[in-house]
Amino acid sequence: MIALITAVAGRRLHLSRQEEWLRREQRADTVRVVVAMDDAPIEIPTAGDATVLRVRADGALPLAAARNAGAEAAIAAGAELLVFLDVDCLPRPELLDAYAGAAREQPDALLTGSVAYLPEGVDYARPETFEALGTVHGFRPRPRPGIREPAAHELFWSLSFACTPATWQRIGGFDEGYRGYGGEDTDFGFAARAAGVELLFVGGAEADHQHHPVSDPPVEHLDDILRNADRFAAKWGAVPMRGWLDAFAELGLVTHDPVTDRYARTPEPHLLTARPAPASAGRPDTRTDAA
Fold it and tell me: Is residue 53 a contact partner of residue 71, using CB atoms and an 8 Å limit?
């Protein structure tokens, strides 16, 4: 049995599109787990087959806790494969089959797939156009169907990934000490490496990322990113999200101590507007820059 797990805060339209795409899969061996992060009630079209959980936010988006809760529920239900899909992602038809095949052959690996970012104004009723319109991440592998390509753990992203329950437990799940936006997924990749779990990009396990506005750098998440960067650095001895942190420094929002390699809020940060993000930009582009 495959459990497909999604955490959501807002994004109701994106969730409904994702549900529509999933119904096209029509896999009898798939159960759905949706985790609401202190959100309004969620109605799932496949409610008879879905588990809907709720995780309190307490002022900061509890992404790590939400994913852990989803995995726990899926394992309790007897899932043999955990597939995590970000609420913004629309699975291509081969995604579940590709993950399932890779997990059968390499059950001890952490699996992830390619994601293409769709532009604003795309016609979601015409998924056959997505291949031409989407922008695939520039420095992550995109192997052909049937190929599993090893990759550095810094390249792990939480938009789309899968693992067996045994591998999940070996990694230890997500560190719930990360609160709010940023860092928890790179930490998960590092935890996999520390546990001796190989990261593989799975050919054919592809998804399309629905468009939504982003800021570059994400100044609205400044405090979360600084707090989580400090946690990551203390734990792993490396600074994550450095691209964003350096951009904050350029805006005068933070200072960087070259001796300690630590970033901190300026005493009186200026109220500046973030630069518009390029069409190909997305949340994972700089989050995985851990070194």
Answer: no
pLDDT tens digits, one per residue of 128-154: 888 888 888 777 889 899 999 999 999
Residues 184-216 pLDDT 10s: 999 999 999 999 999 999 999 999 999 888 788
Cα(191)–Cα(183) distance, integer angstroms = 12
DSSP one-letter code for 67: H
154, 198 contact by CB (below 8 A): no
pLDDT score, position 273: 52
Largest CA distance in the chain: 57
Q: Which residues contact 23 (CB under 8 A, 6 or more apart)?
A: 45, 46
**Burial class for 34, CB neighbours closer than 10 Å (0-12, 13-18, 19+):** buried
8 A C-beta contact, residue 63 and residue 47: no
Nearest in space to 110 (alpha carbons), one of 171, 61, 55: 171
Determine the Cα–Cα distance for residues 249 and 261; give it in Å rounded to an integer. Answer: 13
C-alpha to C-alpha distance for 138 and 281, rounded to whole angstroms:
10
